[in-house]
Amino acid sequence: MEPAPIIVALDGMAEGEALALARRLAGTVWGFKVNDLLSRVGREVVPRLKGYGKVFCDPKLHDIPNTVANQIRVFEEAGADLITLHCSGGLTMLRAAREARAETARLLGVTVLTAMPEADVARVYGRSTEEAVNGMVATALEAGLDGIVCSPRELEIVGRADPEHRLLRVTPGVRPSWAAGTDDQQRVLTPLLAKQRGADLLVIGRPITAADDPAAACRRIAEELF
After folding, report:
1. Which of 26, 47, 94, 216 is 20 to 30 Å from 163 by CA-CA measure?
2. Paired residues of 109 in beta bridges
3. 67-78 pLDDT, tens per residue?
4. Pair 28, 222: CB distance under 8 Å
5. What SS3 state is found at 97?
6. Active-site residue among 33, 50, 60, 195?
């Protein structure tokens, strides 16, 4: 059986705990997301995790083009399969990142964070969530990125902006109905609805990592998807 299109978010975990969970879930999911582990441990955590699945490095890079390009090389050399950077960093930054990579990793542009309520989106971007996501998808396509990260509730917007499905669609903000109340994200959907709306990979954290039996939680989600 093919691994489920699930990226398990190893947020807030110590390295040993994260590696133990990855070992337990090896072969059943696409792979694992690291964010704060990159700060806790460094890029060395990436090859350690790759024995159990693919690795999604989620530093959400946003800096001057040369700095972002250098960081892309660091994560790619470590073995990252996916690397995130903010679409709001602009076209020049995104292009610099694309030109820096050796094409062993895919670059994902982060659109509007799933935890942002509409009022904050308007305050930060000066437009609605739909308008902001639309513009960011257009920028990601122009920059030649491989994919985007968006809330599942924006997948229909992404589908209209990218009708040929050129961008890999990676969606946090995915929460099984039986795991209600396990996160603080604003714009969420169930795994099945996210998949039906065009998600390619689902990023799921606490419904799996906080479960009494994480492997059983993964199996339950996979059964709902197929």
Report:
1. 94
2. 85, 148
3. 999 999 999 999
4. yes
5. helix
6. 60
Full set of structural domains in the chain with CATH: 4-225 (3.20.20.70)
Report the DSSP beta bridge partners of residue 8: 32, 204
- Determine which of 26-30, 138-142, 165-169, 188-192 has the lowest per-residue pLDDT on average: 188-192
- Say whether pLDDT at 154 is over 60: yes
The tens digit of pLDDT for each residue in 17-42 reads: 999 999 999 999 999 999 999 999 99
- CA-based torsion, 135, 132, 200, 50: positive or negative: positive
- Per-residue HEC secondary structure of the chain comes to CCCEEEEEECCCCCHHHHHHHHHHHCCCEEEEEECHHHHHCCCCHHHHHCCCCEEEEEEEECCCHHHHHHHHHHHHHHCCCEEEEEHHHCHHHHHHHHHHCCCCCEEEEECCCCCCCHHHHHHHHCCCHHHHHHHHHHHHHHHCCCEEECCHHHHHHHHHHCCCCCCEEEECCECCHHHCCCCCCCCCECHHHHHHCCCCEEEECHHHHCCCCHHHHHHHHHHHHC
Partners of 56 in beta bridges: 33, 82
How far is residue 96 CA from its own chain's centroid? 20
Contact at 8 Å (CB) between 133 and 157? yes
pTM (global) more than 0.85:
yes
Known catalytic residue at 195: no
